[in-house]
Design brief:
Elements lengths: L1 H9 L1 H18 L4 H6 L5 H11 L5 H13 L13 H36 L4 H15 L2 H15 L12 H30 L2 H8 L4 H31 L1 H6 L5 H10 L3 H29 L1 H7 L1
């Protein structure tokens, strides 16, 4: 197990190299002048050229990327062009807000989706199953930003039940959590139903029923445990996506997280800040996937034997 974890952590190195190079290259091709956006449109051209020279923006792309990676190897994510503060400090100051939003969004999704998926599987082709799958399909197809705007118009603007943005207590969490968790809930519901349908058709399930074991024990003790592998996979992938994919939701609700910081950095063409956010998200996503793989060993002993 330890060797497997070590190998997975080593795989982070080429992933970070590839992702950082792509983002750095794309940011260099983006229109706009970083120095001009920092100093403003009314700044004299001499000041703009001096700032470009100070930030190293006149160097070739590969030279700038090389200097950035040398600093990264020393644990330095660079300094933000816009604020002049260390990117790592800026990201870590906002990361707890993003983690809180992702955690509650995933908890909301898992709490509702797994029971709905189990009920849909045990009552296949019923009205409950049909309604659940239609709602799940709508949840997958609904864009987060549109759902967020509709929730703001309905529950904040008209009903005035919840605030429209910011992080000011549990009431400000409700709308962004629903927005973020709806798509995840739909995906987890569908995979739970599919996995449960595959398991309940196995011979040992029919044998347990023939021995007189109650349906509740058969479903929750025998079938659900064996159906958890694909469910855990999707939950892990969705949680990793929430950490890095809450950008639109945070922007819609003015949530003070890394997503909002990333959007503002892209607008300002603040390459170190954008790269820092992407690298942190990449590391978090890889760690979440590693934790999911380790959980497999505790769910299915056969997988644990392969690790050994």
């Amino acid at each position: 197990m330890h060797k497997y974890v070590f190998k997975r952590l080593l795989m982070l190195i080429p992933v970070i190299l590839g992702v950082s190079f792509l983002v750095f290259f794309i940011m260099s091709l983006a229109p706009g002048d970083t120095a001009r956006s920092i100093l403003g449109e009314t700044a004299p051209q001499e000041a703009v050229e001096a700032l470009r020279e100070e930030l190293g923006l006149n160097d070739p792309v590969l030279v700038r990327y090389y200097h950035y990676m040398v600093d990264l190897l020393h644990g330095d994510l660079g300094e933000s062009y816009k604020s002049g503060q260390p990117v790592f400090s800026e990201v870590m100051a906002r990361f707890p807000a993003t983690l809180k939003l992702a955690f509650w969004g995933m908890l909301f999704a898992v709490t509702l989706s797994i029971p709905i998926g189990i009920i849909s599987a045990t009552k296949q082709y019923s009205i409950t199953d049909s309604v659940s799958m239609v709602l799940a399909l709508l949840g997958v197809a609904t864009p987060n930003f549109w759902l967020g705007l509709m929730l703001i118009i309905g529950f904040s603007l008209h009903l005035k039940w919840f605030p429209s943005g910011g992080d000011a207590g549990w009431r400000s969490l409700v709308l962004p959590v629903i927005t973020l968790g709806t798509g995840c809930m739909a995906s987890i519901t569908r995979i739970t139903r599919s996995s449960m349908l595959e398991v309940v058709r196995q011979d040992y399930i029919r044998t347990a029923k023939a021995k007189g074991v109650s349906s509740r024990v058969v479903i929750y003790k025998h079938a659900l445990k064996n159906a958890l592998i694909p469910v855990v996979t999707v939950v892990g992938l969705q949680f990793g996506s929430l950490l890095g994919g809450a950008v639109l939701t945070e922007s819609v609700f003015s949530w003070p997280g890394v997503g909002t910081y990333l959007v503002n950095s892209i607008k300002a063409k603040d390459t170190p800040a954008v790269l820092g956010c992407v690298i942190i998200f990449c590391i978090c996503f890889s760690i979440v996937n590693l934790v999911v793989d380790i959980l497999y060993a505790y769910i299915d002993p056969r997988i644990k034997s392969k690790y050994k």
